[in-house]
């Protein structure tokens, strides 16, 4: 079930007389189209939230506005098959400045659906990148059992740092120097970026 906020009631009451019916009408449509919507105040204006921000309805001195958060909704309103482009609902002075209730309801529903789909995508667990240790890298480590044991005791992120450091060397001389330094550092029990650790 949705939630109304008394601060939105106060905001609408304080708005200009010509703005109040517009803001009330938009508010009713939002609650009808998305019953789970919650009201709040963001950026000092009424904001409607369902799994993310749907829209805001700011009131100014000479006009009020309905601003959808998702660009897809704004884009769809601009290209709606109506007498005028509705994408810019930023200068509302009368109810007739709004698109039809059907167009607005459709936009609110679509906005809620977009928020739902984005929430599901972000809820999916990120796939962990499996650490692959190159064969030649293991050959180097096997020349020093103490270094090998220290490497195996490191977290995968620290292991990756050493692997990438050796792999990034462009010249053979550089690679050999880095390999020697790595074996020494591992024998001392320090990570590749030990200087930056607290």
Order of helices and strands: HHEEEEHHHHHH
Strand ordering within the main sheet: 1-2-3-4
Strand content: 5-15%
**In this structure, how is the largest beta sheet organized?**
4 strands, antiparallel
Overall geometry comes to rod-shaped
Query: Count of helical segments?
Result: 8
Number of domains: 2
Mean pLDDT: 84
Descriptive tags:
single chain; 198 residues; alpha+beta; Aspartate Aminotransferase, domain 1; 2 domains; 4-stranded antiparallel sheet; 8 helices; 4 strands; rod-shaped
Short description:
The chain contains eight helices and four strands, in the order H-H-E-E-E-E-H-H-H-H-H-H.
Write up this protein.
The longest helix is centred in the middle third of the chain and has 23 residues, at 101-123. Helix 2 packs across helix 4, helix 3 packs antiparallel against helix 4 (101-123) and helix 6 (145-152) packs across helix 8. This protein folds into two domains: 6-123, Alpha-Beta Complex (Aspartate Aminotransferase, domain 1); 135-196, no CATH class. With 198 residues, it is an alpha+beta fold. It has helices spanning 6-14, 20-33, 71-78, 101-123, 135-142, 145-152, 156-167, 172-187; strands at 38-42, 45-49, 53-56, 67-68. It is rod-shaped. 22% of the residues are buried. The two termini are 48 Å apart. The protein has a four-stranded antiparallel beta sheet.
């Amino acid at each position: 079930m949705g939630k109304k906020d008394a601060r939105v009631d106060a905001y609408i009451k304080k708005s200009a007389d010509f703005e109040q019916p517009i803001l009330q009408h938009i508010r009713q449509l939002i609650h009808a189209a998305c019953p789970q919507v919650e009201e709040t105040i963001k950026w000092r204006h009424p904001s409607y939230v369902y799994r993310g921000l749907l829209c805001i309805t700011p009131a100014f001195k000479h006009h009020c506005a309905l601003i959808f958060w998702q660009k897809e909704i704004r884009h769809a309103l601009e290209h709606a098959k109506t007498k005028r482009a509705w994408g810019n609902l930023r200068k509302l002075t009368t109810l007739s400045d709004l698109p039809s209730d059907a167009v607005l309801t459709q936009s609110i529903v679509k906005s809620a659906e977009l928020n739902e789909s984005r929430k599901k995508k972000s809820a999916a667990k990120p796939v962990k990148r499996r650490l692959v240790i190159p064969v030649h890298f293991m050959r180097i480590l096997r020349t020093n059992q103490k270094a090998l044991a220290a490497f195996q005791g490191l977290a995968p992120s620290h292991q990756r740092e050493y692997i990438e450091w050796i792999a990034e060397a462009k010249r053979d001389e550089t690679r050999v120097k880095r390999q020697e330094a790595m074996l020494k550092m591992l024998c001392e029990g320090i990570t590749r970026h030990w200087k930056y650790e607290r």
